[in-house]
Design the sequence.
């Protein structure tokens, strides 16, 4: 008596809906991944999209005094008023650009230099890296208060040290002309370690063979760095540059903690962030403040796109 084994393949095909091929394991795994990520992605999307839409809607109104009070739509009037404000908006935009460019350039140059020095193993490397992390451990507000005490024109230790070496006392944060430069240097002090860590991580992944070949060919240290190390590090360098530039554009805590509302008596450190904060909480001009924030967001997007385009041209 002969028996025939069941055709398992035909059974599986028969169980599949008519006109539809059975899903493979990879397809089922991909579908499960999106099902698991769906709630989190939806929540994050709502948390990003809703504030953006609310701010954009608010920027088109004459909201004043209270966000929920009755308001009427003005169209693009708030944007026109902001762009026409040569007393506060454009100077604040200029200070934002000066602060961001100056701080990021110094942090990148110093971070890369320190990373190159720490690239090779040496005695005490772990201790140096731990000390390097110290400025990143405190909040910007705490950093601002600490440096306010150090740079106090009367009792601060900085002026005592300057007098000790025969240099004149300085006003530092008490000076209208010096405040922005001093705060730029404080930002460099706090965030250069982050750039160093990012670039050091990039350097640790580079192959050693190209640099060794250049050394054999007679290239000096500068030539090996310029023509071998720097091109290989370009992707990491531009990624770190984008991250730090966007973060520097949004700097607010240390400016407000050291100079207060308005960025000082003569608005000497008032950036777009500080300007928008003042419009919102000091003057309660919510519609105009929202328009400034929309313009500020467009500025950040423009900077990111410009840096990405620059990175693409360099890598190609």
Sequence:
């Amino acid at each position: 008596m002969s028996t025939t084994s069941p055709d398992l393949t035909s059974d599986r095909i028969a169980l599949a809906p008519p006109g539809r091929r059975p899903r493979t394991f990879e397809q089922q795994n991909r579908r499960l991944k999106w099902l698991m990520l769906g709630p989190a992605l939806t929540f994050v999307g709502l948390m990003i999209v809703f504030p953006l839409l609310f701010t954009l809607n608010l920027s088109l109104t004459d909201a004043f005094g209270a966000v929920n009070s009755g308001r009427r739509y003005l169209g693009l009037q708030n944007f026109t008023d902001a762009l026409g404000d040569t007393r506060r908006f454009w100077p604040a935009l200029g200070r934002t650009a000066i602060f961001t460019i100056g701080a990021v350039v110094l942090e990148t140059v110093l971070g890369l230099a320190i990373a190159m020095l720490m690239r090779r193993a040496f005695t005490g490397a772990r201790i140096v890296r731990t000390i390097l992390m110290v400025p990143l451990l405190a909040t910007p507000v705490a950093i601002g208060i600490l440096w306010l005490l150090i740079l106090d024109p009367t009792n601060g230790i900085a002026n005592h040290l300057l007098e000790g070496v025969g240099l004149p006392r300085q006003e530092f944060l008490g000076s209208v002309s010096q405040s922005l430069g001093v705060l730029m240097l404080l930002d460099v002090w706090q965030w250069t370690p982050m750039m160093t860590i990012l670039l050091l991580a990039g350097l640790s992944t580079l192959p050693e063979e190209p640099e060794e070949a250049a050394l054999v060919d007679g290239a000096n240290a500068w030539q090996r760095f310029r023509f071998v190390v720097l091109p290989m590090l370009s992707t990491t360098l531009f990624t770190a540059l984008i991250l730090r530039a966007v973060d520097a554009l949004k700097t607010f805590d240390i400016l407000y903690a050291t100079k207060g509302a308005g960025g000082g008596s003569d608005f000497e450190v008032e950036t777009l962030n500080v300007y928008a904060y003042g419009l919102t909480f000091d003057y309660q001009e919510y519609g105009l403040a929202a328009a400034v924030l929309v313009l500020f967001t467009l500025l950040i997007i423009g900077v990111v796109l410009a840096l990405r385009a620059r990175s693409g041209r360099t890598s190609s």
